[in-house]
Write a structure and sequence with these properties.
By secondary structure, the chain is of the alpha/beta class. It contains 7 helices and 26 strands. The strands form 7 sheets. A 6-stranded mixed beta sheet has the order 7-4-6-5-9-8, with no helix packed on it. Strands 16-13-17-21-20-18 form a 6-stranded mixed beta sheet, with helices on both faces. The chain has a 5-stranded mixed β-barrel with strand order 22-24-23-25-26. A hairpin with a 2-residue loop joins β8 and β9. α1 packs across α6 and α4 crosses α5. The mean pLDDT is 97. It binds adenosine monophosphate and magnesium ion.
Amino acid sequence: MISYKEAKEILHNEFKNLTLKTEQVDLINSINRILAEDIISDINLPPFDNSAMDGFAIKFNPEITKWKILGEIPAGKFHEYKLNEYSAVSIMTGGKLPSECDTVIPVEDVDIENDHIKLKEGSRFVKGINIRKQGEDLVKNSIALQKNTLLKPHHIAVAAACGKSTLKVYRKLRIGVMATGDELVDIHETPTDDKIRCSNLYSLISAVKEINMHSVNFGITKDIKELIYDRMKWALESDLDILITTGGVSVGKFDYVKEVHESLGVNIKFWRVKIKPGKPVLFGIYQKGGKTILVFGLPGNPVSCLVNFYLFIRENIYKLFNLEISKKFTANLDEDLKKEDKKRHFMRGFYSLDNNGKYHVKKVGSQSSGNVSEMGKANCLMIIEEERTNPKKGEKVECMMM
Ligand code: AMP
Ligand code: MG
């Protein structure tokens, strides 16, 4: 059995061996994907000096407050006007500025009288106001978006302004998920006698989707060595980056997953970590033809399974792509907790903010790793370190968003 810290180090190193492929996708389909190149602007943004307001473009002179209107410039319909300090051009937001103008007075600040405007009583203007200079947002040939950006609509806006109709993004990691257990039935069935519904496939697939990776569902397999072998062999021969199995990885008589991993040539890097929940977790690597598949055997208990995914898989995928890892925060404990062993605990908690903006947290009902409904009430994991025992009400605990 190894420590949480050791497991983290092993995983950090092994995730780096994944081959990250890239693909070109239409800009409109690149939302939530991770950029695999820097985006360089092919033009200045904005491309020309223009007006930031609907107003009047003038040649600044602080003494002058009345101007003759020479004409107008709608956005996208430029016309060059020869101005002097006593003339103005009506200009719309985004309209290109006549070369001799340096200031725009908003339409709200003037009174219009026939072909003249007059500054309103109490209105002020200074040189250079309401002008957006060429390249002030971004200079041509400079980096508009950095590689590894997780693309959100505000990034798509930037790429669009830079004329990128397709983007090079990382291919989604392909993550296979497979459940084992004689007692499992699929969710459409009402379990009878000694059966339960398989919730792990659904929680894991949605956890994979949540981080916008690609899941491949290998279904449920009975606790029969040969069947697990065949299904896992099939999975390892499918084009996966990560394979996750659940169940059958502990020390029960019918827990065949570790043995099958070994017989398939998976190089086991660790089995069992000093944590709760999720202690029996297994990790290994499978290599064939220069390709590496990271293989995780997660315990069947629904809470252990999902917490393991968050701690060991999600965090490392975030790191792999240089994304921000799950938000952590320190909260005030609102009740005593029971924790007597030397494992690192990840207790399911419910946090809230008080009127002073301080985090408070308490545990959700039971901490049994089999209680799926209790997990459904949680919004965070409370991290109780190895050496810490029985944290008391009022003490601080580190929490991680779920
Ligand atoms: P195991 O890890 O196979 O020893 O299973 C531990 C516990 O998790 C048992 O109570 C199983 O019935 C339960 N379990 C195993 N697989 C699943 C699953 N896919 N969905 C929900 N519970 C499961
Ligand atoms: Mg089992």
